[in-house]
Amino acid sequence: MTCGRQASTPLTTKSHWGPICGSDLHWASWDSEEVLYHAGSGDTHLLDKHTALLLKRMQQSPATSSQLAQFFAEMLGIECDDQVLTRVEKTLECLLRLSLIQPLST
Length: 106
What we know:
Low-confidence stretches: 1-9
Number of helices: 3
Structural class: alpha+beta
Largest sheet: 3 strands, antiparallel
Number of domains: 1
Distance between the termini: 28 Å
Mean pLDDT: 86
């Protein structure tokens, strides 16, 4: 997933992330892609399966980027290292720019 704008909120491994409050998200899946309709904004997004997996995880409960990296690594059956954390943080930046997630106070 690529996004062009800069994130307005810096990511930290201590921030908890979750979906935008009150967001009404509707999912549809095809093979390795998922379509997400965000009723609040009227936007439709085409997400790869890994991005969708992280967003669905955040819908269950808020998590830090470190926790999401661990979850992501476990789902893929790989070691959670700096490369995985970097990939998750880039995905979070993208989801933030799309107004699908927000930092949450814990």
